[in-house]
Amino acid sequence: MKKFLRNSSNRTIAYIIILFSVLISSTVGHIFDLSLYQKWLLIPPILGLIYVFSKYIDKLKSQKDNSEKE
């Protein structure tokens, strides 16, 4: 993780992802009238979903690259 964050572009991407998750949490919290504590509790699952989605996209890209090589 530290190697990933040493690169400034990777660090920027990480900051954008965190800000995006806070924005989603705040929007969902506002829609469902959640307290500030409950909004903060939404952030880890949102980050987890972003992580799983990015791994799924990487898997699809690698499958596409493998099919193009053949």
Could you explain how this protein is built, in words?
- By secondary structure, this protein is an all-alpha fold.
- The chain has one domain.
- The chain is 90% helix and 0% strand.
- The chain has three helices and no strands.
- Helix 2 crosses helix 3.
- It is elongated and about 55 Å long.
SSE blueprint:
Elements: H1 2-6, H2 8-31, H3 36-69
Transmembrane segments: 12-31, 37-54
Keywords: Membrane, Transmembrane, Transmembrane helix
Defining key terms:
single chain; 70 residues; mainly alpha; 0% strand; elongated; transmembrane; membrane
Radius of gyration of CA atoms, rounded to a whole number: 16 Å
Q: Gap between N and C termini, in Å?
A: 33 Å
- What is the N-to-C succession of helices and strands? HHH
Percent of residues in beta strands: under 5%
For the sheet with most strands, the description reads: none
Average per-residue pLDDT, rounded, comes to 86
Number of strands: 0
Total domain modules: 1
Low-confidence stretches: none
Structural class: mainly alpha
Q: Tell me the overall shape.
A: elongated
Helix count?
3
As a percent range, the share of helical residues equals over 70%
Transmembrane segments: 12-31, 37-54
Keywords: Membrane, Transmembrane, Transmembrane helix
